[in-house]
Amino acid sequence: MSHIVTVRAQVRDPQAIRAACTRRNLPAPTFGTAKLFVRDRTGWIVQLKDWKFPIVCDTNTGTVEFDNYEGSWGKPAELDRFLQAYSVEKAKLEARKAGHSVSEQPLNDGSIKLCIQVA
Description:
- The chain is of the alpha+beta class.
- Helices cover about 25% and strands about 30% of the residues.
- The protein has helices at about 15-25, 75-95, and strands at about 30-35, 40-45, 55-60, 65, 100-105, 110-115.
């Protein structure tokens, strides 16, 4: 049986953040405080490609904070790609934790098809 799922990501899992960074060939995330232009934020710090400031993932609230100056300091598409990678990696982690096998297929429109085989 096939199901279409839409994911609204809350970034709460440090392991999935790390896996998303690896998937996107980004530096490993670090936990700490980062300056986002004029304000400090604490959480998992991720440096996206060609972004002036990092994003900060608060795993307590699930929020991602950033300052890209309406795209001038970083392309929003890079954040979208990171969130997609996080969602895929989190789904794979949870499926495997439940004992299921997972395969994935990239689609021409940029989306990713995950197939979870229930054991």
